[in-house]
Amino acid sequence: MRRFGRVILIVLDSVGIGAAPDAKQFGDVGADTLGHISQCFPNGLQIPEMTRLGLGNIRTDNPLRGIPVQKELISVVGKMKEVSAGKDSINGHWELMGVPISRPLNTFPNGFPTSLIDQIEHFSNRKVILNQVSSGMKAIQDFGERQKAEGSLIIYTTGDSVLQIAAHEDSVPVEELYRICRFIRTIVDQSELTVGRIIARPFIGRNRNNFERSNNRKDFSMVSTEETVLDLLTANGISVTGIGKVNDIFSSRGIEREIHTSSNLEGMDETIHAMRITSQGFVFVNLVDFDSKFGHCRDAQGYGEELARVDNKLKEVLQLITDNDLLIITADHGNDPTFKGTDHTREFVPIIAYSKEVVGKNIGVRNTYSDVGATILDNFRIDNKGYGESFLNQLSL
User: Fold this and answer.
1) Same structural domain, 93 and 155
2) In the chain, how long is the greatest CA-to-CA distance?
3) For the chain: N or C, fewer Cβ within 10 A?
4) What keywords does the record list, in alphabetical order (predicted)?
5) 167 and 261, same domain (yes or no)
6) Nearest to 7 by CA among 330, 244, 223
């Protein structure tokens, strides 16, 4: 069985490929991130590199517009179901790394408890405003001028297990906002609440007409009580590079080299750079803009255009692939920009595995995202102590 010295995993954050079998439980019947985006373009999505890798071969019963089936597959392709109890980034990424979250994390459809808000106000000496479910940009547009003027904290949540704090960088310095988030992470972890992520959301701009989020977002995630694939890799001497919000999602645990990025294109550039300076180990990449800038904002046009930009960068990645490399492309959940609301959507995610020697085939539906983590462990000859079934043996004859 062929093994590789370097594995590159690129997570196209929120790029789902059709409603999952349990979509009804999440109110997501009919969601289809890639399918609906492709229909928003007269000639379909123009992503030639992912098309060449066989993205269109994953579902031939309901083709993606502009992404034809390849007659001769050069990759192993398929799609994966999620078994975790939720559909946000922490559920998706942890499951990819072998630790599905079996119990739903707390969500806060009526806002956060008064007792928690009181502790935040006392620690920060700042007033909390909003404390409701809201999309991020709406919260900033509706309350940003007030927040900027009085130095308060805009606290909001979504359908996911997140507490987000937005504050203008001129009124609440970024490092102070991070300090407040660390405090909240600590007191939440000491309470009976389970909150997946505390997210700092700094913004800039003069007024509501030009407010925009800055590049200083930072996620403070809960920490897994179980060993993830990243922990097992580092324990066995395998170098792990985390690019993008990977580091925040795993609280930097099991990650040797951390690279934070401000955009998808910077994430791809850092991936290219990592491939040029390393020849061994695991490179784990998250491209969050699909989710944060286009999915949640329900911008199908922008989402499709961003896919094209990333696909163009993918061409450079593929040029650097050596006989020693395995490239895996997948996603962590869906976020259909044409669907109701502004939350994530419960969907299958694509799986594309490419190397220079791979025997192209469709491996169908995988029963858990953890098959990716199991495959990575199998590749590096590390016992899989958790979830998932390796598909490494299906990459060759």
Assistant:
1) no
2) 65
3) C
4) Cytoplasm, Isomerase, Manganese, Metal-binding
5) no
6) 330
